[in-house]
Amino acid sequence: MNTDSVLARLFSRTTIIFLFVTVLCLVSASFYTYLEDRKLETISLSAMRMGSWNLAQLGNEASAFDREMALMAAGVGDPEEFMLRYDVLWSRYDYLLTSKESLPTRRHQDNKQRLTALFTSLKALEPSFATRLENPIADWSAVATEWNRQKAAIQQLVIDNFVGDETGQLMIGVEASRNRLANLRFFTLAALVIVFLYMAFAFLFVRKQSRTDPVTGLPNSNYLASIRGVDPARMIVICEIRQFQLVLSEYGNEAAIELARLFAGKLKAHLGTEDEVIQLGLSEYVLLLAPGQHETIEEMIEELVTATTFDWRIHESDVPISAVFGVDPPCEGNCPDWNTRYQQAHRGLAQAHLKGVSYSINNEDLRRQIEEERQIFTGLRKFLKGESGPLRLSLVYQPIVSVENRHLVTGAEVLLRCRDDNIGFVPPNRVVDLCEHFGLGVEFGQWLFRQIARETRQLYRDLGYRGTLSINLNPAMLGDHLVADVKNLLIEQGIPASTLCMEITEDNAALEFERINQLIDRLHEQGVIFALDDFGTGHSSLEYVRELKVDRVKIDRCFVDGIELDEDKSRFLGSIIAMADQAYMKSVIEGVENEPQWQKVSELGGSLIQGYHAHRPMPFNDYMALLMDPKTGYPTETSRQLAPFTDY
Amino acid sequence: MKAFPLIVFLLVIVFSTVAQAAPELVVRSGSKVLVLDRDELETFPQTTVTTSSPYYDGTVEFTGPTLKRVLDTFGIDDQTQLTLRALNDYQVKGTLAEVLELDAIIATRMDGRNMSVRNRGPFWIILPLSERPELDHGDYHRFMVWQLDQIELN
What we know:
The structure holds two protein chains of two kinds.
Chain A: H1 3-10, H2 13-73, H3 79-98, H4 103-107, H5 111-134, H6 141-210, H7 221-225, E1 235-241, H8 244-251, H9 253-270, E2 276-279, E3 284-289, H10 297-307, E4 310-314, E5 317-321, E6 323-328, H11 338-355, E7 359-361, H12 364-385, E8 391-402, E9 409-420, E10 424-426, H13 428-437, H14 441-462, E11 468-472, H15 481-490, E12 500-505, H16 506-511, H17 513-526, E13 529-535, H18 542-547, E14 552-555, H19 567-582, E15 586-590, H20 595-604, E16 608-610, H21 620-628, H22 637-642
Parallel strand pairs in A: 6-7, 9-11, 11-12, 12-13, 13-14, 14-15, 15-16
Antiparallel strand pairs in A: 1-3, 1-6, 2-3, 4-5, 8-9, 8-16, 9-10
Chain B: H1 3-18, E1 24-29, E2 32-37, H2 38-41, E3 47-53, E4 56-64, H3 67-72, E5 81-86, E6 91-95, H4 96-100, E7 105-107, E8 109-110, E9 113-114, E10 124-126, H5 138-141, E11 148-153
Parallel strand pairs in B: 1-11
Antiparallel strand pairs in B: 1-2, 3-4, 4-8, 5-6, 5-11, 7-10, 8-9
């Protein structure tokens, strides 16, 4: 039997009711004793005092009368004094038999009968006095005899009441009261000890209870709050079950609790006795791990990841369960305090979530990276609000040319450049990812559209230029507002719809390709075309690609790499181009970097080329200068009207 | 044994000076002695106290002069020791101030009639228990001397 079940039994309803009843009994007993002793004190003591006093007086008054009787018998008595003593005695009987004060005396045993009898016989004496009092030498012996009998009875009454009985009874009462008190004191003391012990256990129980999670029995956040420091050699790991909200929403609370219990079990089973697991919520845990003997931190965490990745069987289906870990590694030398380390572990977790990896170890690189991201994000927000700051975004244009004539610029892809005064150049995909993560995606997209229109509209307005503008859509732009944004920010700003080509990636599009197809349809109505970017590198199936209603595919540079050296690669590229042709999609081949590659692509039947061998990305002014170069050809209003799509 | 009748005779002489033929109240203050019979007591201003008591059932009306009025005749101070003595030799002591505070009367009549010795007469110190319930307690009951015979002041 372990401590838990002992404690649980100790605080069961039965035990509590039992204790309650015991205490109630003790309180009742105390109250009863109190009442009994009060009665003993008030009734017995007053009865004894009054009883003995009055009977003592009866005795005295009887003696006084007795003296007078003796004097009368001796013939020297004073009749008046004799009668006075008689009357005094008479009034005593009257008092004893009628007054309220002497009620207890009367009530005691057969006192009342004895007193009544004595009073009657005293009264009976009176008639015999009358004749004798007038005659000084009368014979008093008969009266005296009668009186002596009474006197003896009075003395007996006094003795019975004084010594023998009332006092004894009172003493017995006091004795009993004392015993009752002693017993009560013993029981009260015992009860106090029990209650004290109970309270001590209760304190421990409540403390333990408050620091333990009711579901898994693991220490909880109350326990965590009590942690002041942790051994520097230990690593702090924060662990969160992935997509726990989905489990909760899909299968309900009970299932979620069940999962938490299962997961906690796996964690405990994997960890050693020196390791601690603390539960923060159903899906979040803090692990304090002792350093491994021969393993690196990475190995330890990877084992942990493996141990907590499993298929959870519920409702006849298997749900894949895994967790994300943030790690603050053991510290050497200057060890920060517990709160900082705890925060660092959380930073690791946040980073792992951001990167979509299963764990991330907090170290100097990560700290710097996070700090940098914070800077970039702050700069981005300022920039997009139109405030000046260290970070600036700008656009560059990479011309797309015809494979047959590299001087024929059929359009350009708009690319993003980002520079921060403190950090230097920031890769565009990092900017886009940050915007996406922190909810700036739409704002960023709209800035992009506005900026493109601002820079390029003079080409369309003044030169009659009709080359395509390929614009990368970030995921946040793929919403219903896209149609309005394209219309308001591009078309109505002077960019002909027919020159716009929206580039989407497989990964973005394939997630919800039905919705994307609707967007594509609506923009097709305006004349806008779509290209599938990075074709062949995504994770989606060809089926999605077939279903997406795009007009162009952009074949990734990885399919171009080495085609001039390897016949297989070249054939593979050829088949992709052929497949695109078959699907009535134009292909744009990216990453053509030298003449042999160019020749190969030309042989393979590719039509449009985007790559360093033709042009590097360039600022707008250079792009415009390129177009203005007499050697350069480009589609114009008239040429497109005459023969759309044929000249590039 | 011849001397016995003589002793008895002497005793009778002594007794006869103490015992009263007609009810009288003797008030002594040192050498001063005041003997008041019932009529004389009734010449003082009379006070009526209607009260219940532990000594009888119901409420009874007592009449007589206040103890204060009777003792005022002596012009004595508050700290004087007062002894109330009854026919049955019961006695109770207290300071004058303590006793006068009780608003006691020397009752000569009970429900308008003289009291015999059998009825706790001839004089009875009565406290207004009904009017002043705080006095209805053993500590004060002891001052309610019946068959009052003498009052000593010293």
